[in-house]
Amino acid sequence: MKKQIFVDRKTLGALAVGACVWFSPAVLGLTPVQAAAAATGVVVGLPNFADLVDQVGPAVVNIRTLERPKSGRMGGGQIGDEEMQEFLRRFFGGALPQPGGKAVPRGRRQAPSEEPVPRGVGSGFILSADGYVMTNAHVIDGADEVLVTLTDKREFKAKVLGADASTDVAVLKIEGANLPFLVLGSSEKIRVGEWVIAIGSPFNLENTVTAGIISAKQRDTGEYLALIQSDVAVNPGNSGGPLINMRGEVIGINSQIATLSGGYSGISFAIPIDEAVRVSEQIKKSGKVTRGRMGVKIAEVSKEVAESLGLKSAQGALVSQVEAGSPADKAGVKPGDIILKFNGTPIKRSSDLPRLVGSTPLDAKLTITLWRQGKQLELPISVADLDGEKQAKASGAKGKGEAAAAEKAAANALGLRVSDLTAEQKKTLGVNGGVQVDTAEGAAADAGLEEGDVLLQVNNTEIRDVRQFQAVVAKLDSKKPAVLLVRRGEQSQFISIRPGVK
Question: Catalytic amino acids?
């Protein structure tokens, strides 16, 4: 027997009477139209998205990218992994879909041509009536030409105003007037369980609509941003398309999926629209995104560390390294500090800190709240330009002269460049000597060594400083592996490396 849901017009409460169950519109996630119907006692089922799609669909666009042929390259589409290709062969009868409805049979290659060839397909949406378009940075990455097609089949050649790989946001501009556009909502106001839809071009099937619910907010996937998780079906080609709530507002940009096969497996992720808007405003203004940095290396605060340091909960960002001359160094931040708040905003996970710092205006006067030796203290701090700091660091490395060259040459046998530990670092780590890894290349990188590791021993010889490390490395036998005792965070382990031929 088919179950029906009724809504009581008076109480709108959650009570059961016989075979009938009453729910409030808020519980059901009803639109105003559905709520009005519910108040009259009309039977209410799942939401109907037809009116919503009619409203927002015209502002969602198909994005095709083209690439000019290069030496040794052939046209006719690109081959992905085997599972995805098998799906495409089954779905499209043995041919790969191409823009414009054309197909290239398997195994057939087009002759080289001077004309741009198809590179990829994605989605996007129009931000304003004068032609600003938002999509993913990875959709247009490496493209020589970008074509935007509307639902009414009008096609525009788009200008790429800028893209930010860290957030995977790009802004395009097409020349048009009175274009349909979408209203932007707020990703801060979304609720887990609310209905959402995605519109895009999966596998180049334009204007495909899928629906689902918000599965989680602030999902930390290890990327620069915490993403919105939903169970809306998203596949290759959906990238850059909007995630839309029941009010017709964009709350996210579909960007990633969690999959073992290459296809949709029930979990998709979207970039929060609030962050995307901040990025897009910078891109429209200057063509790039300026992102701040403090100059610290951080790690998660474990439950054991929190308890041992007297913290009530395992929150914050544990400072494992402070770059010399960085804003954090100038502010007095030390290795072993735990950053609890950034300008008043609590740091729940260590990944929260770079996101907050990155979105902070440069040279702004801020404060950070630290936990140090059982006490809480506040320090004033400013942030520096991330790109500018990288350039300065590179220039500084080149300007060290003969001493730097000698140090690099001495460490080449292991592929390591190191520096002395400061007294504070030694105290924090509880060691009397050791050197810190600045760069790991070749054999060292292959063995898994990373910047920030601390080397305590080489072949059972304790390392005191850089000078001694260089002397020990210079005497290593290239035919025998060297065993290093490596400290990373709170753990130490032995790693075997075979020295390169000198």
Answer: 138, 168, 239
**Checking phi first, is residue 249 left (phi over 0); if not, alpha (psi -120 to 50) or beta?**
beta
For 144-172, give the secondary structure using H, E and C.
CEEEEECCCCCEEEEEEEEEECCCCEEEE
Measured CA angle at 98 (ends 95, 102), to 5 deg:
75
What's phi and psi for 96, nearest 5 deg?
Answer: -85, 135
Tell me how far apart the alpha carbons of residues 502 and 497 are, in angstroms, rounded to a whole number: 15
CA nearest to 61, candidates 196, 167, 176, 190: 176
The CATH classification number of 400-497 equals: 2.30.42.10
Give tens-digit pLDDT for 279-328. Answer: 999 999 988 888 888 888 888 888 888 887 888 889 999 888 888 888 99
For 175, residues 6+ apart whose C-beta sits below 8 A from its C-beta are 131, 156
Question: What's the CATH number of domain 292-388, 2.30.42.10, 3.40.50.720, 2.60.120.620, 1.10.260.40?
Answer: 2.30.42.10
pLDDT tens track for 225-253: 889 999 999 998 999 999 999 999 999 99
